[in-house]
Protein 1
Amino acid sequence: MHRLTLLLSLLFFLSTATTFTRGHNITHILGKHPSFSTFNHYLTLTHLAGEINRRTTITICAVDNAAMSELLSKHPSIATIKNILSLHVLLDYFGTKKLHQIREGTALAATMFQATGSAPGSSGFVNITDVKGGKVGFGPEDNEGNLDVFYVKSLEEIPYNISVIQISKVLPSDVAAAPTPEPSAMNLTDIMSAHGCKVFADALIANPEASKTYQVINK
Ligand SMILES: *[C@@H]1O[C@H](CO)[C@@H](O)[C@H](O)[C@H]1NC(C)=O
Ligand SMILES: *[C@@H]1O[C@H](CO)[C@@H](O)[C@H](O)[C@H]1NC(C)=O
Ligand SMILES: *[C@@H]1O[C@H](CO)[C@@H](O)[C@H](O)[C@H]1NC(C)=O
Ligand SMILES: *[C@@H]1O[C@H](CO)[C@@H](O)[C@H](O)[C@H]1NC(C)=O
């Protein structure tokens, strides 16, 4: 078969296959809430969406577009944004009920930031505490016990796979917000994967000659 035909049938096969994929899709969940479109967009850009979809028993602490613009106004690199947003992915399931009934009123949650190994010491943990007045406060462990970010509302709960909640603002962590260098050289294969052309990118990896051609064309 001609290589392009093969590629196209492969693409068709995969696009039909995804229709039957089980499990949650964070992009789809947040897509129902326009005031979280920026957060949603950056989950995709940083590839965190894929990692979130692969995991279960997690909680996503989303922030609205206003909170995201405040973060973006500091012009962080995409790698820094990834670190910050991965701190908003708790590796445990916290539905609204559980948040308001935390044992002893306080808990430490591991995050995806901590799981990536980019976070030194306890900085990848988020402290969740039931504070006075029925409020639930959140604070990264490296933020000296400040719990000035609060639970706002639940956006979606799929027990016990994924809970998506809104918190009042971006979790302030100096460690996660530390500037991270951009990848030194952009790699076409990676760029295409990032834009949903994973199959084509994989075909390129499998075919070094074609890959060379594309690297040249794109210079
Ligand atoms: C939870 O995740 C598992 C594993 O991906 C999946 O089989 C199950 O259908 C999911 N449950 C719900 C309610 O979506
Ligand atoms: C997740 O949902 C988004 C928006 O609805 C869609 O574009 C994307 O293809 C979905 N991803 C998967 C893996 O199904
Ligand atoms: C969370 O922070 C509060 C306030 O600083 C503190 O009292 C509490 O012990 C911390 N919880 C955990 C589990 O470390
Ligand atoms: C680009 O990245 C892919 C996958 O990460 C890797 O296999 C390939 O060798 C890289 N190509 C170049 C030119 O660095």
Note: The radius of gyration is 20 Å.
Protein 2
Amino acid sequence: MPDAPEPLVFELSQPGRTALRLPEIDVPDAAVPAAHLPAATLRRDPPALPEVSELDVVRHYTRLSRKNHAIDTGVYPLGSCTMKYNPKINDALAALPGFAHLHPYSPDHLAQGVLHLLWELEQALCALTGMSAFSLQPAAGAHGELAGMLIAAQYHRVRGDSARRTVVVPTAAHGTNPASAAMAGFDVVEIPSGADGVDLDALRAHADATLAALMLTNPNTVGMFEARAAVAARIVHEAGGLLYYDGANLNAIVGRARPADMGFDICHLNLHKTFSTPHGMGGPGAGPVGVRADLARHLPGPRLRRFDRPGERAPRFAWEPAGPEGIGRVRALYGNFLVLVRAYAYIRACGGEGLRAVSGHAVLNANYLMELLRPILPPAYDRRCMHEFIADGRVLRPLGLRALDLCKALLDRGFHAPTMYFPLIVEEALMFEPTETESRQAIEALARAVADIMAEAARDAEAVREAPRHTPVGRVDEATAARRPVLRYTPR
Ligand SMILES: *Cc1c(COP(=O)(O)O)cnc(C)c1O
């Protein structure tokens, strides 16, 4: 029964039950005697671990997994997250023993295949963005932003330009943008942005000798292409600042347009979004940071180098320390290596033409869904969108309902909710991103589910307000869940 509540694994516990039996120890017991440890660190009681059989564990987690909504079970139109289907071949390749079991401290000469893969991935990302060099270290988009902002800070510092303390961020930006700039030590200034993109007059007002960088997302987070990015770039460059590209939305333009050609100097990409790694529930991800040629010396080190020696059949690869102007390491070892393998597999499997098709279908699918919904749930901005669009949840207000209610009701119909209440500049925002991997039939089914909810809302708004009724957990008190979450099991 997938709908019965699942007890905690602790509640399945039976004293003495175990999932495995270890052989008798046949070497001297080397455990540190308790007398050698500080008394304050010693437990008084054994830990209350669940005592369960292997079958108990398998059934428990299998039942839990069946309660989850996943891209493998249904449409997941979560805007800005690019919840596309992740081909299983990527996982199979990442699980190859030579990748999965490589010791991260293996010497370079025993890891040539792996270094070759990383080097080719760096080259592919350069080709797709127009940047000159990449570091694969950052472990997520936000981490790539932080690395990029540290690079911007280093660039100005090395030039002795200490007055450049301001990073300008449009109001539509993802919350990680101002956070990353602030963490890198900058003062963050917000300027307005909307369907037409960033407000150029507001930008001009900050384009002075204190401007360090402008952070832009293109297409932006309301799903519109920033057609004036090149103008913004000129304004920023003439003032002596740098232009940062938040690449989370690359799925809309991959294979068609390159951030470097729009004038961007630094960028990060979310490999787990555009280049297909499962990333619901938070990770792991990868947020490589790329730069134009003269900024490469500020990238995190060590840097991967390729050597082609005359007379040698294959190139050699080695890590080299970054120069004194680098920002230093931002993560241990190779970054989230197995995410990088998945991205490499995806890029190689698609090829240039395949990636062009990805962005083409992503944009087509979003526009198709927007048009299907228009009569019942109009778009907030009435124009063609890129890979995602914002529907105007304010149409629910006359019925006494909110965007939230529609999202909850979608769960009852087997769909994941769209992103809601983001970006903050659009009231009652419902941001749909179907991605290129959904079929026409799946998109039409999602549109029918929304229509069904709107019809139910007109008939019986109370029923929609009580949704979801068919999920393992119904409406929770969100304020209490956020402020006083119960995250720890206390044995009774
Ligand atoms: C997802 C996202 C980020 C942050 O990326 P993470 O990998 O979640 O850290 C930044 N900007 C935009 C526009 C995003 O959608």
Note: Residues 80, 140-142, 174, 176, 217, 221, 246, 248-249, 270, 285, 287 surround pyridoxal-5'-phosphate (CB under 6 Å).
Protein 3
Amino acid sequence: MRLPRVHIDTESLIANYRTMQGLAPASVCGAVVKANGYGVGLLPVVPLLAGAGCRLFYVASLDEGVAVRRLLQNYGVPTPDIAVFHGYLPEEIPVYKQYAILPVLKTPQALSSWFSGDHGPAVVEWDTGMHRCGLSPALAEEVSLLDPQRLHHIMTHLAAADDPDHPLNVQQKEYFIHIARLFPRVPTSIGASHGILLGPEYHGRYVRIGIALYGGVAHPDIHPVVQVHAPILEMRTIAAGQSVGYGASYVAPRPSRIMTVGFGYADGYLRSFSNTGQALIQTKDGTCFDLPVVGRVSMDVTTLDATDLPESMMAEADNVVFYHPQQGGIIDAAHRAGTIPYELLTSLQPTLARWVVGDA
Ligand SMILES: *Cc1c(COP(=O)(O)O)cnc(C)c1O
């Protein structure tokens, strides 16, 4: 196998879902699977979560919603709810109806045209301070006159939930409670992954769990889900003073062994890992050895400093691991690259093979 492949730990995925359920025991736990299940893949993720009892899925686009519906039909899962964050275009209405998908309505136009027809229930999003999507709270009185049966739930999204001390958290929550009072018979939804960690007043009837499922939240009971295994393509020895890769950005301070592995930015390994990322080599007995990225990340390959790697480990190895838990997984890697776990995961190209490991 000369291509990188994504390893997905199904047991950890399910354990993470259970952890979040435990943290929001009074809520129905929806799974956010937009962007191809955060880059992990709809196919491995959605049926597993359904098997764990998940009956509410959030996606970004109608296409994704239809894909989730079909996937679950194939697995014989009884009619879960599927909500589309992007809302709808008028010409898409028949598809929403055919697949019984809930649009998330967030503009006055979308709201009035959806509810002027007989189109089934929808979700309504309120802007309580993120100023990205959602209806203005000034419309709450007017919208509250709608038949509550037509509102599957009302939701808002927190802008700074990953910073528990941010004043926006309390402000947005208060604002939303104020709106929700006008909808006493309509279920609510506030928290995504980080919002759930803020405590029960940030949950609502439905929570929307995204990144925590995939191991991208630092919490003792959230486990890493994704690793990338990349094939070792070449080994070479260079002299002190010789450089590695494009731009000669790394100059070896000593005679070095450089390992070239098949995982580059075209596969989803960000170029900002140049001279700062790390991989790991693992032998069958579990011994691990860190290999720092040296030089720039290229399109299909990355170069690692393997100078200190013991010969015995080298002889045994045919691939290296990126985002290994021992190196802090996607969370520490994201810090190194100056980004967030979300971007690392969703950068993984859908064309990479997905290997499902674990018994879940
Ligand atoms: C992506 C998204 C989520 C999930 O957020 P996580 O931080 O990944 O849990 C929830 N709600 C909305 C509106 C989103 O766009």
Note: The first helix runs from residue 10 to 23.
Protein 4
Amino acid sequence: MLIRCYDCGETQDDRAYSCMCGGLLEVVQDFKGLDAEELKMRFRHRLSERMSPYASGVWRYKELIHPELPDGEIVTKREGNTGLYAPEVVRRSLGIRKVWLKAQSENPSGSFKDNGMTVAVSHGRYRGYRRFTCTSTGNTSSSLAMYAAWAECESVVLVPNERVSINKVLQTLAYGAKVVGFDGTYDEGIRFYERYGSELGLYICNSINPFRIEGQKSIVYEIAQSLDWELPDWIVIPGGALSNVTALGKGLEDLFQLGLIERMPRVALIQAEGASPFHRMMSLGEQQLTAFESPSTIASAMNIGNPPSWKKARDFLTRHGGVTCSVTDEEIMAAKTLIDRSGIGCEPASAATVAGLRKLLADKTIDREETAACILTGNLLKDTEALKHTYRSELSEWDRGGLAMPMKLTPERVLGRLGSADAFNPIS
Ligand SMILES: *Cc1c(COP(=O)(O)O)cnc(C)c1O
Ligand SMILES: [Zn+2]
């Protein structure tokens, strides 16, 4: 595979982690000889695969992701193949013509990180690595730990002690990864790899791993295929390290270049206010990112002050009329309640999409007659701590530590909890 530096254009070895100049790497695909109609047919046929690697919602698109990898080298857990839903309660609450939610939360380890990690681990193992590493706000480490276990390899992950959901740390440990905690934020983990990465002899699977980006492109391929190759007007995505919006942009440009779609949708990138250096840069029209020294948001998956992929994200959004927006933790949690009660559910970072869409509709950046797809990046069970505040009164009755008065079960108490037949309205 051809790997090139995004900054200086230098060609790199496909095991490289970053360029000598400090720039990010990217995979340069060669789509010569690929025909749109033929691809559509091939992708459709593969929807009926059950056992081969093509049953995966990532490897179904192998020609556009990692065409050179021998099929026998693929490490897959049938990731992708996630639901694209259009819940009416969410649509009504937002007051938009149509809204889809792409539930990446349905991935095997519970987040979209699986879409990229299957490709990074497959590639690393193919190139001879048996030991893998990353730093993470939680989901990347869970995903890496899962694939490393599945490939019978080892993994060691660096997890900041601050603001990482305990569910994700436990999930990572359960898959057998070694966890190294450290004081500070995700950004310090990234700096560690910049300094010592090449000495470690481990395959580094951080968000800047170019093969992860290739795998994450499949999210938008799947949305396009589900909608018969006609995308909605907007795609709304949360941003922390900005790898996912980078992959979304690259995937969209692939689809357009190949003639698989005829019209580019616009992209809205949403950050949490307490960790929004990229939104600040874009809204001020600046060309350089100024990091947030102490990022802070309940949406721990995007609690990142110095997003590594900001240049790629900036360039894509600038080329195609993308917008950015930031939302408060309160707005995120309100949107999460709505998504949870629609029956889909997600972790806080994912809910930033619906919160952001609401804001962009209110300020008329997005028209109510337009259509949108929001990418729900992680599963509801990924962060149960975040729910404790929302449901504190319910929890206080259930978990009283043996104090207070006894509570007997009666039909009155059970039915009384439901309220009148039509009073329940989750979207008010
Ligand atoms: C990683 C992650 C994000 C942020 O994605 P980036 O690629 O870091 O911008 C958002 N939500 C969830 C659930 C995540 O795990
Ligand atoms: Zn370079």
Note: The CA atoms of residues 15 and 127 lie 7 Å apart.
